[in-house]
Amino acid sequence: MDSFWLTVRNGEDLLGERKFEELGQFVLDVLVFPHSSASCERVFSKINLVKTKNRTELTISTMNGLLLASQCVSSTGCNKFQPTERMISSMTKASLYTPSTSSSTSNVVLNGNDEGEEDIIFEEMAI
């Protein structure tokens, strides 16, 4: 579809004028948009499941960690998932409800462990 509209955008008439350049560019720009917002809606649904009425004091970094842990568990299965020590330490009561003073951005860092596999370490997120 994009090659068709690229041809329309660059096509010239017999006088060498591009009659449909703006239309072709508009359609190419529109084709870049995502076709649905389903992936965003899935994240919002997960947040609503985690951040309940009793857990309104969760920090952004904790929510980030919980969502990433959920993604790790869903990709490997809950019976095969092995959290790292850093993951476990980030889920203590003090870290769950104490706001972070860090100004770092959200990162997922992959580190190789002794067995050659990768451990996922969640970094803090501040907005």
Notes on the structure:
The chain is mainly alpha-helical. It folds into two domains: 33 residues, no CATH class; 84 residues, no CATH class. Helices cover 46% and strands 8% of the residues. It contains six helices and two strands. It has a two-stranded antiparallel ribbon. Helix 1 packs antiparallel against helix 2. The C terminus is likely disordered.
Q: Point out poorly predicted stretches.
A: 102-127
Oligomer status: single chain
Which strand-content bin applies to the residues?
5-15%
Distance between the termini: 38 Å
Quantity of strands, as a count: 2
- Spatial arrangement of strands, main beta sheet: 1-2
Mean pLDDT: 74
Helix content bin: 40-55%
Helix and strand run = HHHHHHEE
Number of helices: 6
Number of domains: 2
Q: Structural class from helices and strands?
A: mainly alpha
Largest sheet: 2 strands, antiparallel
- Gyration radius, to the nearest Å? 23 Å
Shape category: elongated
